[in-house]
Amino acid sequence: MSRRIEACTIEYAFRTLQKYDLHTQGVRVGFKRSTPIPAALAQAPLKTIRPRDAAAVYAHPRPQLVRLAEQGLLHRLADGYYAVVPQEMVGRRWIPNLESAAAGIATAIYGFDNISVMGVSAARLHGVMPRALATAIVAVPRQHRPIELSDRTAIVRLVRRETSSLDVERIGTELGPALVTTPEQTVLDLAHRPTLGNNEADVPDAVVALYARSDKRRLQRLAAEQRRLASLRRAESWAGVDRES
């Protein structure tokens, strides 16, 4: 009798489990799957990594990063550069904007504190150049060849400058906070090289908008320290400032 009761109990439990399994198919249950991306990579500055950055984690990092990209956990920005896809965007189409991608790539090469988004790209992040661009400009301590992106028709130009002497601030991007030239520094940079970035038609209006929000004493000081007084005069001319009055 006890064996029959035991068999019935097991059969009942099995049927109950079957019903539960059918009932919960396609429903997210209350646990969180761990990401296969190692924390050391997922927490990289601006969430941008190269195969060499993964060498301490994977014996053969390049095919592993390709695999993670195929799974939708990484996004391939350019040959050898990947961005970690935000968890909420896994399984959806996601592509970071050009300025975020450029900051991430430059940071992966030179480190967070050694780069600064500048020129037309800084103007974009300051919100004074609304039209999307095909060229991103980043100041770096050593010259580097331009990097063509593989996820869109765009190029990242890494311009050699004394980055430690630039006036910068942190601004949020889609990949995390990045160093970006301040409005004052961006005014001088745009006026000095308005054709850098192949968007010179929009530069005067961007300079006028940035000049209006700039600290004029700070702007004058930067222009004197960086020998950009001629650039300041050009910016003031675009802004309609009459220094004779």
Task: Give the helices and strands, then pairings.
Elements: H1 2-24, H2 39-42, E1 48-49, H3 61-70, E2 74-78, E3 81-84, H4 98-110, E4 116-117, H5 119-125, E5 135-140, E6 147-148, E7 155-160, E8 168-173, E9 176-181, H6 183-192, H7 203-213, H8 216-225, H9 229-238
Helix pairs in contact: 5-6, 6-7, 6-8, 6-9, 8-9
Tell me what you see in this structure.
The protein is of the alpha+beta class. The chain has 2 domains: 39-89, no CATH class; 98-238, Beta Polymerase, domain 2 (2-Layer Sandwich), CATH 3.30.460. It has 9 helices and 9 strands. It has helices at residues 2-24, 39-42, 61-70, 98-110, 119-125, 183-192, 203-213, 216-225, 229-238; strands at residues 48-49, 74-78, 81-84, 116-117, 135-140, 147-148, 155-160, 168-173, 176-181. The strands form 3 sheets. It has a 4-stranded mixed β-sheet with strand order 4-5-7-6. A 3-stranded antiparallel β-sheet has the order 1-3-2. Helix 5 runs antiparallel to helix 6. The longest helix is centred in the first third of the chain and has 23 residues, at 2-24. It is elongated, with a radius of gyration of 26 Å. The protein starts with a helix and ends in a 7-residue tail after the last helix.
